[in-house]
Automatic annotation (TrEMBL):
Entry superkingdom: Bacteria
Origin species: Trichococcus palustris
Pathway annotation: Purine metabolism; IMP biosynthesis via de novo pathway; N(2)-formyl-N(1)-(5-phospho-D-ribosyl)glycinamide from N(1)-(5-phospho-D-ribosyl)glycinamide (10-formyl THF route): step 1/1
Keywords of the record: Purine biosynthesis, Transferase
Domain Formyl transferase N-terminal positions: 1-181
Signal peptide range: none
Positions that bind (6R)-10-formyltetrahydrofolate: R64, M89, R90, I91, V92, N106
Reaction catalyzed: N(1)-(5-phospho-beta-D-ribosyl)glycinamide + (6R)-10-formyltetrahydrofolate = N(2)-formyl-N(1)-(5-phospho-beta-D-ribosyl)glycinamide + (6S)-5,6,7,8-tetrahydrofolate + H(+)
Name the UniProt record assigns to this protein: Phosphoribosylglycinamide formyltransferase
Enzyme class of the recorded protein, top EC level: transferase
GO annotations of cellular component type: cytosol
Length: 189
């Protein structure tokens, strides 16, 4: 299975997947990292790992369709089977959704459908709920919607700070996402 990973920021989930591939725990090839933010730290990680990077911002294009058509060109060229959104902070448009129907997965740091959006961890923390978690799901036209593939709960402890909760959520993400990608690789065989 050939995958492309899309990231917009730190890239710790990208790193976890790349490490799992290198360790033989995920039977996939990372064709490239796509980054919509030329200064994102994820790009530095990819360079260190010798993973090809493709980066451009939507600003360069007339509209979202033109932007996504350019992405699609790279996905086609590299014969990518699965698109993995790992902190890609954009809504996926019809161009990519149609071309990669049911072949785009996203990770989100909450128990969806609770707390979608950009601040899933903080929103759960501030809501005072006893537990939150991590969701991996197929992407559709909504924000953090689409059929759920895997979910894992994370308790919010009485002495948690936002930072301590973030750390535990990320630990779960870095374990769960490679596991799900490996399951999808098995199915793709
Ligand atoms: C992750 O926590 C991911 O779940 C979240 O962004 C973070 C990216 O971290 N995604 C969303 O909130 C999607 N709505 P990373 O760049 O270190 O992988």
């Amino acid at each position: 299975m050939r995958i492309a990973i899309f990231a917009s920021g730190n890239g710790s989930n990208f790193q976890a997947i790349a490490d799992a591939v290198a360790a033989g725990k995920v039977d996939a090839t990372i064709a490239f990292l796509f980054c919509d933010k030329p200064k994102a730290f994820a790009i530095e990680r990819a360079k260190k790992l010798n993973i090809p990077v493709i980066t451009f911002t939507p600003k360069r294009f007339e509209d979202r369709m033109a932007y996504e058509n350019e992405i699609l060109k790279h996905l086609d060229e590299e014969a990518v089977d699965l698109v993995v959104l790992a902190g890609y902070m954009r809504i996926v448009g019809p161009t990519l959704l149609t071309a990669y129907a049911n072949r785009i997965v996203n990770i989100h740091p909450s128990l969806l459908p609770s707390f979608p959006g950009r601040h899933g961890i903080q929103d759960a923390f501030e809501a005072g709920v006893p537990e939150t978690g991590v969701t991996v799901h197929l992407v559709d036209e909504g924000v953090d919607t689409g059929p759920i593939i895997a979910q894992e709960k994370v308790a919010i402890l009485p002495d948690d700070t936002l930072e301590s909760l973030e750390t535990r959520i990320h630990q779960v993400e870095h374990r769960l996402f490679p596991q799900v990608i490996q399951q999808l690789a098995e199915k793709n065989k």
